[in-house]
Write a structure and sequence with these properties.
Length: 439
């Protein structure tokens, strides 16, 4: 399939109704493969995200000598090789579009006795890697990148790593996780302090695999030289994928949707908090815990939204949900202001610019700022052609805008939706979105 030509056509209007289980959490699925591979014994993963990003991680570990069986949709069994059982890959490891895969694997591979090369697609090849290579170098790793600090990464391996006590300059779960993974191979203690809370799936899953991770406020530490033991991981539905439907149902009059089995880890629920502050009607039912992660069913009904100033402390807790939230802001009464979100500029696309361009294309006023955006809610807006810049979340966000548009919205360059949400068009159509895809 030609990635650039896959396009969505979204009919104006409609409402979202019924119930829906979105695919498995992408962050947790990556980690289940990685930790399962590095553990002793078998790890069975249910609810695994069969999307391109996590399949790249799965293929990477196969290339590193790990046997991974695919047992059915969302169901894999990883035969762990232990922390020291990986073998060199014969070719460069291609991590496709996935920042998480590249940054976490850099941490794992820095601790190996052999060299590895990590490559990615055009988008990943533009993303900053110094945020992991610099602290890994402080631990003793040798990693080469381009002069701009972007992939490919050549990880020399065969170094003795030592634990460091690192204060992260940005709130990044990927950096924290890369350093903790390298810390498993380091002499002594590795500690990471985060400037604001970020998703803690690594800490939770390491604990589930028997590795003691100590948290003291914003600082999380582990000791090198331990071992991981495999087990079962049940992956919840991804709140970042559910977010499109939380927004879609909130903006489309007549909507009522039940989103099943969604991960509601408090380091991920910023989207619910922000939407509720805007006036959204979201209820959380049957909270429960699965594999160390909180899970619940979410019911969302249409409600008129108001623009707000988004509190900066909620930014890392909703970092991937801003494309969807900007569509909510476009449909809200009044102005929504986001600040403290410069990280959005270094995702799969520059999400501030890409969203502002798309919003202006459909007639919504958006003012770009260095670390955020100001969006004027519109009573009505038209349709138009949107460029997703190959960014899955931009594509899905504008698909939801169709629910309130007065004309058809065309979105080009949508193939990467498959990185996080395979089956998006079918699932969205089944609950009432007038969406079709073509090449
Ligand atoms: O650790 C993770 O699984 C992720 C962390 C976040 O990235 P940063 O660490 O760059 O904020 C997020 O945007 C990404 O989608 C997944
Ligand atoms: C930023 C994202 O992913 P990654 O960094 O893994 O490419 C995302 O899925 O929104």
């Amino acid at each position: 399939m030609n990635a650039l030509t896959q396009r969505y056509t979204v009919m104006p209007g409609g409402a979202l109704k019924g119930r829906l289980r979105v695919p498995g959490d992408k962050s947790i699925s990556h980690r289940a493969i990685m930790f399962g591979a590095l553990a002793e014994g078998e790890t069975e993963v249910e609810g695994f995200l069969d999307g391109a990003d996590c399949l790249a991680t799965l293929a990477a570990f196969r290339a590193l000598g790990v046997q991974i069986e695919t047992l059915g949709a969302g169901h894999v069994r990883v035969h762990g090789v232990g922390l020291h059982g990986l073998t060199p890959a014969s070719d460069p490891i291609d991590l496709g579009n996935s920042g998480t895969a590249m940054r976490l694997m850099a941490g794992v591979l820095a601790g190996q006795a052999f060299a590895s090369t990590l490559v990615g697609d055009a988008s990943l090849s533009r993303r900053p890697m110094r945020r992991v290579t610099a602290p890994l170098a402080q631990m003793g790793a040798r990693i080469d990148a381009t002069p701009e600090g972007t992939p490919p990464l050549r990880i020399h391996g065969a170094e003795t790593l030592r634990g460091i006590d690192y204060a992260m300059p940005m709130a990044s779960a990927q950096v924290k996780s890369a350093l903790l993974l390298a810390g498993l191979y380091a002499q002594g203690k590795t500690c990471v302090t985060e400037p604001a809370p970020t998703r803690d799936h690594t800490e939770r899953m390491l604990a589930g695999f028997g590795c003691r991770v100590a948290r003291d406020g914003a600082r999380v530490c582990l000791n090198g030289g331990g071992r991981l033991s495999g087990g079962k991981v049940v992956v919840p539905a991804d709140i970042s994928s559910a977010a499109f439907f939380l927004v879609g149902a909130s903006i489309a009059p007549g909507s009522e949707l039940l989103l099943e089995h969604v991960g509601i880890n408090p380091t991920r629920t910023g989207v619910i908090e922000i939407l509720r502050r805007m006036g959204a009607d979201i209820d959380v039912f049957e909270p429960r815990e699965m594999s160390g992660e909180p899970v619940a069913d979410l019911r969302v009904r249409y409600a008129p939204l108001q623009g707000i100033d988004i509190p900066e402390d909620l930014v890392p807790l909703a970092i991937d949900e801003f494309p969807a939230l900007f569509i909510a802001a476009a449909c809200a009464q009044g102005t929504t202001r986001l600040t403290g979100a410069a990280e959005l500029r270094v995702k799969e696309s520059d999400r501030i610019q890409a969203m502002a361009d798309g919003l202006s294309a459909i007639g919504v006023a958006a003012e770009v700022q260095s670390d955020g955006i100001v969006i004027q809610g519109a009573d009505a807006f038209g349709g138009g052609v949107i460029h997703s810049h190959g960014d899955h979340r931009i594509a899905m966000a504008f698909a939801m805008a169709g629910l309130r548009a007065e004309k058809q919205i065309e979105i080009v360059d949508c193939a990467n939706v498959d990185t996080s949400f395979p089956g998006f068009v079918d699932k969205a159509s089944a609950v009432g979105l007038g969406i079709g895809s073509s090449l």
